[in-house]
Write a structure and sequence with these properties.
It is a single chain. By secondary structure, the chain is an alpha/beta fold. The chain has two domains: 69 residues, Arc Repressor Mutant, subunit A; 151 residues, Cobalt-precorrin-4 Transmethylase, domain 1 (3-Layer(aba) Sandwich). The chain contains eleven helices and five strands. Strands 3-2-4-1-5 form a five-stranded parallel sheet, with helices on both faces. It is elongated, with a radius of gyration of 21 Å. It starts with a helix and ends with a strand.
Length: 227
């Protein structure tokens, strides 16, 4: 197959961006030039080596490596609340951070502002290229939420209950989150503007506990709260 000098030069330039150990794997014939081009899209050197190892361990083809890269780079779990925002502003913030999937983790959604009803979000977000998934099991029922917000239930007790709830329903949510990572960044959506007490908000939102759990248990490397 004939390839132009320009084609070769461009790929060599990309390969030069990769860690020297990755270049050595190419020189040793363990990775192809195509694999190295894909790896060059990763900025951090340590992550380049980690992804190269993933390719080798799983014997990924170039096409498979391209698909795996999306999930690999989706290493951040985002959280967002809509209180004090319009739907337009919420969508603007999601698109700014390239969120591809929103997980709605509210328990009751019947009595919320119409602008943020499940039915409306289910219609509006996909129109913006954002997938919408509702997981009621990751919400907090009224019987737990109300006494906590009113200060009758301590945060430690609330957290202990919610961690139990996360584990109880892990078979439901884990598969969906892992699948969604293949499309790009994920955001956890709830009511409260902030995930933690600040300004006029006196309590934690349960999305803080969930995001913390996901990072601690290795499903994501870090979290970003869109406040």
């Amino acid at each position: 197959m004939y390839v132009s000098v320009k084609w070769v030069s461009e790929r060599l330039a990309l390969v030069l961006k990769v860690h020297e150990k990755v270049r050595q794997l190419v020189a040793d014939g363990k990775l192809s030039l195509g694999h190295a081009v894909i790896i060059s899209k990763i900025k951090e050197a340590d992550k380049q080596l980690k992804f190269a190892q993933l390719i080798l361990e799983n014997k990924l083809s170039i096409k498979q490596a391209e698909e795996a890269l999306i999930e690999f780079l989706s290493d951040t779990i985002f959280t967002i609340g809509y209180e004090g925002r319009t739907l337009e502003k919420l969508i603007e913030l999601l698109k700014k951070h390239e969120i591809k999937t929103v997980f709605d983790i509210r328990h009751e959604v019947e009595f919320v502002k119409p602008e943020f009803s499940m039915e409306l979000l289910k219609r509006q977000l996909p129109m913006q290229g954002i997938r919408y998934i509702y997981i009621k099991e990751l919400g907090v029922p009224k019987i737990i939420r109300e006494p906590y917000i009113e200060g009758k239930l301590s945060y430690n007790c609330f957290k202990q209950w919610y961690l139990w709830n996360i584990e109880k329903h892990r078979e439901i949510w884990e598969k969906q989150i892992r699948e969604a990572r293949r499309s790009g960044f994920i955001a956890l959506l709830c009511v409260e503007r902030y995930p933690f007490p600040t300004k006029k908000q006196k309590h934690y939102c349960h999305r803080h506990i969930l995001a913390e759990y996901l990072v601690k248990n290795g499903l994501f490397e870090k979290r970003v709260d869109l406040t």
